[in-house]
Design brief:
about 90 residues; 3 helices
Length: about 90
């Protein structure tokens, strides 16, 4: 595996961990009636590479799975992220 691929995997892993924690904190806040994490922030974290963690949180925590508008925006951000990363990796070859 190339150094670039290894770096990309580490960045995705770190961003996913941060995103998973953000979803978990938002889920806990929702359950206790506290201040919530704005959806735009959750989507931005996913766009920056944390979408695998966001997807895992959605599945494991059952959080943000019933709001269609959020899910459409989430999957659009995944598409943008994957497209940009593929483009950048292609330019580095």
């Amino acid at each position: 595996m190339s150094e670039v691929a290894r770096t990309v995997l580490w960045l995705y892993g770190a961003a996913s961990l941060v995103t998973y924690v953000a979803y978990a904190l938002d889920k806990a806040a929702a359950a206790s009636g506290r201040w919530r994490t704005p959806e735009r922030r959750l989507l931005l974290l996913g766009l920056l590479g944390g979408w695998p963690g966001g997807l895992l949180a959605q599945r494991m925590l059952r959080h943000k799975t019933g709001k269609r508008s959020f899910l459409v925006a989430f999957w659009a951000s995944v598409l943008v992220n994957v497209s940009v990363v593929n483009l950048l990796l292609g330019l580095l070859r």
